[in-house]
Specification:
With 323 residues, the chain is of the alpha/beta class. Helix content is 29%, strand content 22%. The protein contains 10 helices and 13 strands. The longest helix is centred in the middle third of the chain and has 18 residues. The N and C termini lie far apart (43 Å).
């Protein structure tokens, strides 16, 4: 069995602030095998972006990791320092309009990344970058090197950022909702581009999204987060066709193709400084029982490594809960 490229085991991240200690992540476990796209989904405030920052080693200074492992290619980055993975993990940020410095040429900004983290001369880097611009389907790749960010459209800027993420020939791409700021047509093009690049270059991809449509189109596996914990994970096809956790089912019921009304899930994600005891979803869950407010739910494994952290499962979720 192939060892995972990225293995996160029982990872917790706390951030100290004026309101106390925020338990952003609590016991997260997931793995990304080579050549696999792992989607991470959940409402805002569930810890998705913090998870990516932990993988990238760019947590804020007031953050701490009380326990857990974060292994990349067999090395625990928490112990050996994230510098060991510099250049081997590429990052595609969310906003193509804020992620490039407007006063420097786009090519120069990416070449600076390559100068620090990729072997070779500037001439070699420029040649490689032109090839990457061609791979991400930027028009006139040679001329693009000398252009400023404002001379590109939103979709072209996102392609620039994908090229920047690939510039040092990484093994893993980490993407934080990279299509959110784009129109639907451009979003589809970027997703097709990412899917092709992952396949052609044999990359692994850790992809954060709110959109189950994007998830279905791009991801091989999915991990559902709620309030800093994994509530369900498995093959994307299994989770979408047969969701077992009430939270997953209610999220899917909010999708426009399935929604009965526009009310969404009652209640809100709890503040990270005031997490409820037991199952963190129980204040909003339509099938919660007394034990849910006292005990952390056990994890049950179904076929194909489909994992669910709920003792009651969604089979018992009343249909009226989705009305």
């Amino acid at each position: 069995m192939t060892s995972p490229l990225l293995s996160i085991q029982d990872l917790s991240v706390h951030i100290r602030g004026d309101a106390g200690i925020a338990r952003i992540l609590d016991g997260i476990t997931l793995s990304v095998p080579p050549g696999v796209t792992m989607g991470v989904v959940g409402e805002s405030g569930c810890g998705k972006s913090t998870l990516l920052r932990a993988v990238l080693g760019i947590l804020p200074r007031n953050a701490s990791i009380p326990h857990g492992k974060l292994e990349f290619k067999g090395k625990d980055l928490i112990k050996v320092n994230w510098a060991a993975a510099r250049g081997r993990i590429g990052f595609v940020p969310q906003d193509p309009y804020l992620s490039l410095n407007p006063v420097f040429r786009a090519g120069d900004q990416i070449l600076e990344i390559m100068r620090k983290h990729a072997p070779g001369t500037r001439k070699d880097h420029a040649s490689t970058l032109i090839d990457l611009f061609r791979a991400v389907q930027l028009p006139d790749p040679e001329a693009a090197l000398a252009k400023y960010p404002h001379q590109f459209s939103g979709g072209q800027r996102q392609r620039l950022l994908i090229a920047a993420a690939l510039a040092c020939a990484p093994d893993l791409l980490v993407a934080d909702e990279p299509t959110t700021a784009l129109d639907v047509t451009t979003q589809r093009e970027i997703l097709a581009l990412l899917r092709g690049l992952v396949s052609d270059k044999g990359l692994s991809l850790l992809f954060v999204t709110h959109d189950f449509g994007v998830l279905a189109a791009l991801c091989d596996r999915v991990t559902v987060l709620y309030a800093g914990r994994v509530v369900e994970s498995g093959l994307t096809s299994d989770v979408l066709r047969n969701p077992q956790h009430p939270y997953t089912r209610l999220l899917l019921a909010c999708h426009p193709d399935r929604a009965v009304n526009l009310l969404g899930i009652p209640g809100t994600v709890p503040a990270a400084t005031q997490q409820p005891e037991g199952c963190r979803f129980h204040p909003r869950c339509p099938i919660a029982r007394a034990a849910c407010s006292k005990e952390v739910p056990p994890v049950t494994e179904f076929a194909n490594s489909h994992l669910v952290a709920c003792p009651w499962y969604a089979d018992e979720l009343p249909e009226q809960a989705l009305a």
